[in-house]
Amino acid sequence: MNLKSALDTLQKVKKAKVGRLQDIESLRREILAAKEERLQISHMPVAREAALERLENWRASKETAALGRNLLGYFTGPSQATYDVPRVELTSELLEAAVASAAVEIITRNLDEFYADRESISDEVRQDRLDELELQISQLEDIEERMIRLAEDAGTMIMRRPDADPRSVLAFDADLP
Fold first, then answer.
1. What is the tally of structural domains in the chain?
2. Is residue 6, in this structure, part of any structural domain at all?
3. Is 46 helix (H, G, I), strand (E, B) or coil?
4. Phi/psi zone of residue 176: left (φ > 0), alpha (ψ -120 to 50 degrees), beta?
């Protein structure tokens, strides 16, 4: 091999290394974008209908707690001797029930304002989308690991990301794409 062909070969190898590095960096950007989307989706508020249902459940729980006790027994005992003044906690339960019912209207208006300019997502759609993203991220990380191993086999050392999925890093070659 003469000097010129050796230099040509060296240039080809350098270009191939740069191409591999660019490919891996591009793939890493895709992984990062998918992880960012996963974070955004996991922090999106629930659908307005779900929030209103939660509000109604809260109101009903306060009402049920207050009315669930035998209130009449406090006031209709057979004689003055058995009459017992309602306990303080019972009074606070009644107050919570009254306040909760009145608060529903205010909280509903606040929810309307909150959802006016926000995107929301149902729990089912959120879970479906998160599952899709988890699969996508896993597949991208498997491809990244395969590319790193191919580069290492060709003599190029590439650092793995600190947050690389250990399942991909430790996978058998046969299990990677």
1. 2
2. no
3. strand
4. beta
My answer on whether 130 and 149 are in the same domain is: yes
Residue 83 in tokens:
């009459």
**2 C-beta neighbours (distance < 10 Å), count:** 7
What is the CB-side half-sphere exposure of residue 152 using CA atoms within 13 A? 10
Q: Which residues contact 111 (CB under 8 A, 6 or more apart)?
A: 48, 51, 52, 55
Q: Is 3 exposed, middle or buried (0-12, 13-18, 19+ CB in 10 A)?
A: exposed
Q: What pLDDT tens digit does each residue of the chain (177 aa) get?
A: 555 665 565 566 556 666 678 888 889 999 999 999 999 999 999 999 999 999 999 888 877 766 655 555 666 666 655 556 655 555 677 777 778 888 899 999 999 999 999 999 999 999 999 999 999 999 999 999 988 888 888 888 889 999 999 999 999 999 988
How many residues can be counted in the chain? Answer: 177
- Final residue belonging to a domain, choices 101, 120, 139: 120
Shared domain check, 86 and 57: yes
Residue 127 C-beta-side C-alpha neighbours within 13 Å: 3
pTM over 0.85: no
Closest to 29 measured CA to CA, from 129, 144, 142, 134? 144
